[in-house]
Backbone:
């Protein structure tokens, strides 16, 4: 059984899809959900599925390696970031080499980097009149959105699409592909 952890900061709709996808899997178990926000929606989703949660503070995350012990305790061998907005520190990248992926709501290398998250991305795509956008799933290194790309999927942007329309279309792609790609990697 592969034990995976999901790191999320917000609503957790991707985390929910991943949890549901692997719910009855004989090979993959979501063993832990980690959040940097104690009121994140994703924590309720995890608890409803009986998955242990761990809330981490900034100091612990960046100035200690305590999280490694927690991950080891839950025998986590793979990490999926799903709307986790803090930069991953070097000790964590080293502990999970090519065993940690992120999903980004655009076609990297476009519209990535610090500050490019959530609606900021879709507003930038709209402002640039891009004919298409999409999702990128990539391995995580020490820089925002720069690790090797594993998978991309595209969707058109219509001239009348608002940033909210774009966000909805992109999220649909995320929900469809992220669990499948995690399964493939594992
Ligand atoms: C997702 O669209 C994800 O791609 C994005 O945050 C959203 C989280 O939604 N991540 C980033 O922008 C990272 N730079 P969710 O909490 O409903 O899964």
Residues:
């Amino acid at each position: 059984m592969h034990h995976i952890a999901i790191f999320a900061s917000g609503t957790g709709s991707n985390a929910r899809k991943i949890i549901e996808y692997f719910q009855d899997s004989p090979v993959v178990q979501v063993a832990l959900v980690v959040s940097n926000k104690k009121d994140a929606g994703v924590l309720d989703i995890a608890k409803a599925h009986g998955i242990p949660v761990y809330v981490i503070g900034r100091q612990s995350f960046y100035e200690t390696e305590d999280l490694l012990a927690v991950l080891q305790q839950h025998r986590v061998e793979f990490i999926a970031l799903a709307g986790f907005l803090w930069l991953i520190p070097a000790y964590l990248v080293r502990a999970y080499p090519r065993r940690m992926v992120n999903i980004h709501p655009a076609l990297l290398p476009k519209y990535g980097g610090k500050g490019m998250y959530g609606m900021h991305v879709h507003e930038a795509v709209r402002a640039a009149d891009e004919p298409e956008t999409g999702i990128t799933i990539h391995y995580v290194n020490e820089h925002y959105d720069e690790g090797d790309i594993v998978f991309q999927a595209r969707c058109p942007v219509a001239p009348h699409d608002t940033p909210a329309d774009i966000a909805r279309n992109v999220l649909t792609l995320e929900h469809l592909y992220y669990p499948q790609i995690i399964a493939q990697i594992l």
Observations:
- The CA atoms of residues 63 and 78 lie 22 Å apart.
- The chain has two domains: 1-96, 104-186.
- The radius of gyration is 16 Å.
- Residues 8, 10-15, 82-83, 103-105, 117-118, 121, 171, 174 surround glycinamide ribonucleotide (CB under 6 Å).
